[in-house]
Amino acid sequence: MEDATAENGTLTGVRGGHRVAVDKYRMHHRFYRRFDEIPEQDPVLWRNYQDALKQQYEAAGLIEEKIALSKGDLLIWHPLFPHGGSKIKDKTLSRRSIVLHVSLR
User: Fold this and answer.
1) Distance between CA atoms of residues 57 and 67, nearest Å
2) Which helix (H) or strand (E) holds 43?
3) What is the pLDDT of the chain when averaged over all its residues?
4) pTM score of the predicted model
């Protein structure tokens, strides 16, 4: 495990963004008649969802923040928390980390 820094790329997230989440169950109607027709991978629909989400959180005055983590840190977030990764500044550095997605039923 390694630290995630501005140099090797941090996690990014929008604090409070889960409260303004786009209704992904309605957005698909612009492209598909039924929800079960959506393929597992649809880059156009994904990009449109990301753009709509960004418009909503920016309209709410929310901003994307960099989240630097030290090796061994644990971060748990809401399933609708908008998140991603920052650009790696120093391409000679690695960022060994483990990400787990856990779903409880």
Assistant:
1) 18
2) helix 43-59
3) 86
4) 0.74
